[in-house]
Amino acid sequence: MPPIEKGCNNEVGMCYNKRRKEEMRRTGMDKEHSVLKPSKTVAVIFYVLMMFLGSSFILIGVVAVYAHLQPQLSFDALFEICQKPELLEQASDPLIKGYAMTNAIGNMISYLLLFAVILFFMRDFLKEDGKRLKKKWRFYLWFIPLCFCLFYGLSFLFNWLMEKVVSSSENQQSIELMIENGGAFYMFIAVVLCAPLVEELIYRKAVFSFLERKNILWSYVFSILLFALPHLFTTSFEDPIQWFLKLLPYLFSALLLALIYHLSGKNI
């Protein structure tokens, strides 16, 4: 039998080079590795960096611009009250409004940035969810409205019961203050439009799905805790019992969301 020439086929089969190229195409190895490829890990890292660093820098920028546009407010006074919300009790009305507006705008910018970046890095996973939704649309047609009603109904009932026992968390009070002082539009974009999808992608699609491969119980525990605890970062721990009671509504919401995500076939 004559030798196989490079780049050619014969009766026996393809040459090594063509077989290699076909294998690379099949496994995706022919695609150039890029930091911009879809990645849950990159999305989670960006989320953590934004929560602990990025949002603070954004707030500083917003405070600087707002103080420049409001001559009656100084940057130092406004920035100090943003760092120490407990000073709001003795603050003047313009300063309270400044605190509310800068935090509301800062939250909106942070969540818009998070929304765009996380959506970009998790685009392929969203496409998979879309295909699953299209394939099982009859199931989701009743499942989504049912879960929506159950989640908000049970959450409202649980929060109503907890209000009889403990005051709302500082996080909730801060949101209400922003809404009451002109930040309703900005908070609507941040809290209603962007935050739910961002948190679903991070805490359920990334964290829950990753841990589920190892242990379903731990996937519930960690995704619930990681969702709930950041909501109480600004709440004092001087009274552990009060702190824990304020944490319960967030734990309950996280449990419901994790359960819904799991029962939906891991579709956000």
Automatic annotation (TrEMBL):
Query: Which regions span the lipid bilayer?
Result: 44-69, 108-126, 138-162, 182-203, 215-237, 243-263
An example Pfam family from this entry, by short name, is Rce1-like
Under the heading InterPro entries, the entry gives:
CAAX_protease (IPR052710), Rce1/LyrA-like_dom (IPR003675)
Q: Which stretches make up the CAAX prenyl protease 2/Lysostaphin resistance protein A-like domain?
A: 184-265
Q: Name one GO biological process term.
A: CAAX-box protein maturation
Give the GO molecular function terms.
Answer: endopeptidase activity; metallopeptidase activity
Origin superkingdom: Bacteria
Keyword line: Hydrolase, Membrane, Metalloprotease, Protease, Transmembrane, Transmembrane helix
State the name under which the record lists this protein. CPBP family intramembrane metalloprotease
Species of origin = Candidatus Pelethenecus faecipullorum
